[in-house]
Specification:
elongated, 6-stranded parallel sheet
Length: 326
Amino acid sequence: MDHLNLSHAKNLLLKVFESIAAFHTDKKTIATIGTFDGVHLGHQKIIDQLIRQTDDDQFESLILTFFPHPRMVLQAESGIQLLNTITERTKLLAKTGLDHLIIHPFDKAFSRLTAEAFVKDILVKQLNIQKIVIGHDHRFGTNRTANIDDLIAFGQKYNFEVEQISAAQIDSIAISSTKIRTALEHGNIQLANNYLGYNYFLSGTVKKGKQIGRTIGFPTANLAIEAPYKLIPKKGVYIVKSVLNDRLVFGIMNIGTNPTVAGANLSIEIYYLNFEDDLYDQKIEVSLLHYMRNEQKFDSLALLKKQLNSDKSEALRYITQHANLQ
């Protein structure tokens, strides 16, 4: 399973705007609003629905999303973990064929905007909307008091259409997001990837670690994840793949604290098969394919090395048996 490949991707030239005020277009837009965390199969259906209505080039497709996530601002104590960093989300949306993406800075002042001011000053004047595609349970305005009925009334007043996303579609999106997070927390990578429609991935910079793996013949790339809100899956050992220096390379990744060498902090380390290039300070993306086992503590480095050799053999068998991983 690989990254998004929507049949309706009519262009791959997504224009990204860092605020609502920065957005401009000469055409009317067909828009939707949401966090789109994960850009999973449920989201992809909504985006496809949006893009299908702009095929004649009369209108342009637009997503308005926010960063930080509203819950990070309004419910900071929730400690929400997201499936994508904002950079990852942008890359995924760029593959859909969407015309415009606005990533608006969310703050408490914005949350206090009245419903009518939001519609008149943002949707109509700034976004130039012809139609908004939105869920039946969407709420907006000060204290989120306005609902879909209010939006329809505003549409009649300000001359734009409102297309409701069905309750069934909304439920599938909510269920998928929850199930994806739960699956990742339990190491069920196949289920998470099935809901996403692509392989869950981690992206970050390779930093120098303790280099203990090098001493036993298993040099690893130590991945530093910059975004503290990125959801890190269950501790354990995974089969992964990356594109490194334009080559598809498979590997074994450990998420854990390295208990064999009395580690304390969580680390993400990847041993790449048949790859020896220097990756220090490079930004890489690691796609998760299969959960192999829990992290274990071994009584010696020799026993750890024996297990790693066993993991390597299992990984090679898995890769051979799943030719579609290419």
